[in-house]
Amino acid sequence: MRPQIVLFGDSITEQSFRSGSWGASLADTYSRKADVLVRGYGGYNTRWALFLLHHLFPIDSTKPPVAVTIFFGANDAALKGRTSDRQHVPVEEYKENLRKIVQHLKECSPTILIVLITPPPIDEEGRKQYAKSVYGDKAMELPERTNEMAGVYARQCVELAKDLGICSIDIWYKMQETEGWQKKFLRFVI
Fold it and tell me: In this record, what's one Pfam family (predicted)?
C-alpha cells in the first residue's frame, strides 16, 4: 500500500479536487509517490470533526497516513445569533478542538506530518451581493460571517501550530496580500 496524505476539513476541503483546486494539484504533485485522500465534510466545524476522528484515523491502524492537513475554521467563525449560528464554535473551543485533533493524530503516528490551515478571508461584500441575487428581498441583512472574525480564528490556528511545533499555512493573511483576492481566489456558496 502506498503512503497516504489525508486532507481533512470542511467544504473547502471537500471541493479541493475540482479542476485547478489545491487538492487536485497536491494529488498531481504526489501522483507517483502517495495517494491523496479527501475527507472533507461540507458545513462541518471542529466540534463535529471530533466525532469523525476515531472512524477516519483509528489509533490501532497498521498504516496511518504520512501526512494530514487540517482545514477547519470557516464554519466555526460563523457569527453567533446569525443565519449560520448552528455552525458557530467559540474561538477558545475551536483552538482546543484543533489541539485534540492534532493530539489524536500524533497518537496514531508520532511521525505523522500535520499541517494546520487557517480559515480563508471573507469577502463580505461579495457574499452580500450573492445572497441578494439568490434570495432577493429575503436575503440576510446582517452578515453571518465577517473577515475580521475569520482573522481572529486564523490567528488562533497559527498560534496553536507554533505552540505545538507543527506546520501551518495562514491563507487568511496570504490571500489578502494579492490585489483582487476576493475575485481571484473565492467563489460564493452559501
Answer: Lipase_GDSL
